[in-house]
Write a structure and sequence with these properties.
The structure is a homodimer. By secondary structure, chain A is an alpha/beta fold. Chain A contains twelve helices and 14 strands. Chain A has two domains: about 210 residues, Isopropylmalate Dehydrogenase (3-Layer(aba) Sandwich); about 120 residues, Rossmann fold (3-Layer(aba) Sandwich), CATH 3.40.50. In chain A, helix 1 packs across helix 10. Bound molecules: 3-isopropylmalic acid (IPM) (2 copies). One 3-isopropylmalic acid sits at the interface of chains B and A. Chains A, B: It is an enzyme of class 1 (oxidoreductase).
């Protein structure tokens, strides 16, 4: 298979973890005989420094000519006091909108060997295997904003099509997972939530193999902690998804290893680790590349339909953890922390062994 | 001291836990020589059944003639399919607005004897002692709502005065607590959040004894789980406050014992347990009255300025837990669950002993 991938290393530890993930990608390409062509471009703070724009036109053009995007991370103290339009995360918000990447998929799965790092009791966190599906290009993020000296407002707005397509994605995912969907809203207060709930009700007729529940966002915020094992697929709007997916990301102790996908209906997508740019440890070769490596696996799965290759990467990452190899963020008392590259070598060895 | 209190038992376990709390209130009144006059009125489902209105005019009148309100809980399956205006929680939303109860205070404190019930590891939850201050009468809850066949919207809107007064409340609370304030917003996306953040920055000049940090809502959703002990006072808007206060309520394992206050600038306030109406266990005398009893303590403290009396109730509740007495929701393996009234008797005995 031939595919073009745009690589956006970004800021902080972004370049290091992306470099590690690309090494893994190349090994997989060789093993399975694929031809992945890479084009590098700038985003975030790096793009502000070079082009005075967190998402330069050049970058958009490069992405347009590719089949998928791999992103490291954006942001850092250097740009924290910039005006809104020159903030690194503006690049992220714009790339989502420009490419209509409306479906944000964030799987959270407990790695048994990482549970010691979870703030939750082992028995609460151990069976977690959920997927948050967040609407990413609508709602209060992109509705009209107003500001005067004495008043400010943000419009939370959704139309039928925006909700229908994300709800369809969530049903399709539930169907190939454990067949359970939890739709999260605030229907006792918000009009957008009432439309959302109505559409989920309409859609469920077409997915009779999926069990659906509606739950209020405040109640889910509790249950994600008291009983996270309850959830399979969770679908929600942009703002609630932002909060709940971050909340969910810490329950298994594996924030540093969580990948994400932001996809469009034709399977074009952007893949990035859930963690941030961690400027305080950048350039030291101590960052954990697992989340970015697993983001590459999601790319192979969701954008290229290469299930076997994706599974191979996931298996390798899991095996390296099971063998007790960790980077500094996860190393246990008395253990030795591997560098970013050393840990990546272990993953590559796992894949190579199986040639 | 002479005070008038309106009592709104509400639905489900509301009447039982309110009855228990009133017994405690009467003992405190006797011990400290106060005269609390009680007037009962209807709210929620009970009011819908009797008056076809979740907040009848009679109830509003009764509340207007009192110095504080004690509420049990509202809601239940019986009214779940009612139209929006005839839903029990509409009574709650309206009473907040009618009486301008803009400051919702929700303390979360770890009771050492209850930590086994926490989903978090003991070392993560044990030092938690935080107070969420939620703006309760503005924002997306009360902004203009629109709905057509194909589109729905909710306006998130705040003006300067609404933000200033809640931020002042939070600073005042931080000052008499541990002197730390975390203001939560989504300033990288929302215009309302940018106004919010600006006002916190302006206000902090007047509270030089308080240390302030700004944090994004998604980041706080994580940190409330990974490091809840970090927080002292947390102030945020209505929607974020709804989610974060519920999230915070489960971290110590003591959801069933958490009180809340919703107050106005002149110290008039409504006090209620954080838990819901739990219709499935209503009428069985097994509900935990601790949250409502502690809500009475908050009433004494915040509406009547009776710090000593409030502290006496808190001390008594704590002592009963320390002595190993629990209702069914908290009882440990092999322990005996006390009924609602039996557990309340223990609290009263604690207070009586100290006459
Ligand atoms: C950086 C920020 C604008 C962004 C968001 O809120 O969507 C981030 O929190 C995320 O979840 O990807
Ligand atoms: C019942 C509901 C409208 C209410 C709210 O969202 O404010 C509740 O969740 C609360 O927090 O008191």
């Amino acid at each position: 298979m031939e595919k073009k991938i745009t690589v956006l290393p970004g800021d902080g530890i972004g370049p290091e973890v992306v470099a590690a993930a690309i090494r893994v990608l190349k090994v997989v390409a060789k093993k399975y005989n694929h031809d992945f062509q890479l084009a590098y471009a700038a985003i975030g703070g790096a793009a502000i420094d070079q082009f005075q724009d967190p998402l330069p036109e050049e970058t958009i053009e490069t992405c347009k000519q590719s089949d998928a995007i791999l992103l490291g991370a954006v942001g850092g103290p250097k740009w924290d006091n910039n005006p809104a339009e020159l903030r690194p995360e503006k690049g992220l918000l714009r790339i989502r909108k420009v490419f209509d990447l409306y479906a944000n998929l964030r799987p959270v799965k407990a790695f048994p060997s990482l549970l010691d790092a979870s703030p939750l009791k082992r028995e609460v966190a151990e069976n977690v295997d959920l997927m948050i599906v967040r609407e990413l290009t609508g709602g209060i993020y992109f509705g009209e904003k107003k500001r005067s000296e004495t008043e400010a407002s943000d419009l939370n707005i959704y139309n039928r099509e925006e909700i229908e397509r994300i709800v369809d994605n969530a049903f399709e995912l539930a169907r190939v997972r454990r067949g359970r969907l939890c739709s999260v809203d605030k229907a006792n207060v918000l009009e957008t939530s009432r439309l959302w709930r109505q559409i989920v009700e309409e859609k469920k007729e077409h997915y009779s193999d999926v069990t659906v529940e509606h739950n209020l966002v405040d109640s889910v915020a509790m249950k994600l902690i008291t009983n996270p094992g309850h959830y399979d697929v969770v679908v929600t709007d942009n703002m609630f998804g932002d909060i709940l997916s971050d909340e969910a990301s810490v329950i298994t102790g594996s924030l540093g290893v969580l990948p994400s996908a932001s996809i469009r209906s034709d399977s074009f997508g952007l893949y990035e680790p859930v963690h941030g740019s961690a400027p305080e440890i950048a350039g030291q070769q101590i960052a954990n590349p697992a989340a970015t490596i697993l983001s590459v696996a999601m790319m192979l799965h969701y954008s290229f339909g290469l299930q076997e290759e994706a599974a191979e990467i996931e298996r390798a990452v899991n095996a390296v953890f099971e063998d007790g190899h960790y980077t500094a963020d996860l190393v246990k008392d008395g253990g030795i922390a591997l560098s970013t590259d050393e840990w990546t070598d272990k993953v590559i060895a796992e894949i190579d062994t199986n040639f």
